[in-house]
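Q&A log
Question type: sequence-to-structure
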Amino acid sequence: MAVGGGGEEGEMEKDFEAKLRVQQGGGSVQRTNSIAFRAPQEQFSINDFELGRIYGVGSYSKVVRAKKKDTGNVYALKIMDKKFITKENKISNVKLERIVLDQLDHPGIIRLCFTFQDTYSLYMALESCEGGELFDQITRKGRLSEDEARFYAAEVIDALESLHGVGIIHRDIKPENLLLTLDGHIKIADFGSVKPTRDARITVLPDAATNDEKPCTFVGTAAYIPPEVLNSSPPTFGNDIWALGCTLYQMLSGSSPFKDASEWLIFQRIIARDLRFPEYFSDEARDLIDKLLDTDPSKRLGAGPDGYDALKKHPFFRGIDWKNIRKAPAPKLAVDTSAGENEDQDSTWNLNIPTSHSAAPEGNNCAPSSSETQSHMSRLTSIDSFDSKCRRRFCHLKMRSSVHGNGRRRSKVSNAAESHTYWKRTSAAPKAFQEMLDGVSKNYKFIQKLMDFFFFIIFFLPQIDLERSFFFFFFSFSIRS
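Response status: OK
Response body:
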């Protein structure tokens, strides 16, 4: 450990180590420091690095560009909050991610270089992919050409075949987790949601493959979740194949196939398989995506009895040299013209290591300038970042879901009223705009009830009998009044 702790910090370290043993099954589980890792556990401090822009942010971690001061080597440094990990019982997940990454060796999978820790955080130094995310390429170009999409999809398939070959399910394949090297080749990243199968051919925690998921525990990202996950079925390799189909669709069209206004509507479209192809999709692309997005995971191309051989032989991939795919020239990367050429040199962080337990959260925030954060913050679309009520909204009775939905919309109306108060004090606000906000402010309760009525029509009536529906609606209506 690079930074020791005394007093309260020391107690925090002991508590973390104790919970590590409990969450991993006590003394029967092999500890990290007794395993011969390929990626060493170093005695570094965060002060040994110059921190640059933020690559991405998750529910309990952030990934930043970090340059080692003595060597000049650049890494993608994943910083994880120990306090949050312990509180949310995520230690086994972090350990599994570390163990799996350490044993994977494929040019299409992100490489773990080393790890270290201090009193407040765990750190994973990953190879830095300076080409950015595939998502950024799709955004900058609007959509990719079929040749570009074919190349990237082939490289993802090449990496997934290796990953599935050792019995690991990624469970969060999406353009944001497909990183590009400077020469334009794909690497799969973010292994925080991985699930080993029972016959996995790599060393994992003894209970990692056998522990059943909690009912209706969503892992992944809303727009890429397969229908069987929404029905609480166990994870399979078909989960990644479905996400591959969604990703290929997004490459070719510029948006995900089941995109909608809310997670609820996305889930409904996924279950109904409401799949619509743009006219410019080729017949080969339509056929491939159609077979990747089969509602039966065992029938998806690549997940069936013929495995990846059947997927590679699809006409869409005609002309791909699978043996030399990593040596083939990659598509030219679109450059972000809005960012300066030397932004990393001018935007290093001033990271202050906290000296007390109470200062830990603030010190670990490591916030750069607001403009830099807005420029480089990744989309927070992981299901792990969703509100817990949002998960219950889909898993439990739709009556409860509707109530939650109403609550969210009430907050939007309230925000409109607060905005009105601000603009009313601002002389620059146009008179017509002030009058409009006056109307919203005075009548937001009426709008709130109107929204309640619309949600009642949409969600209650199709699910329960008419008499009970009206009873529940007017009961809730009268309470709010």
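Response note: The first strand starts at residue 49 and ends at 57.
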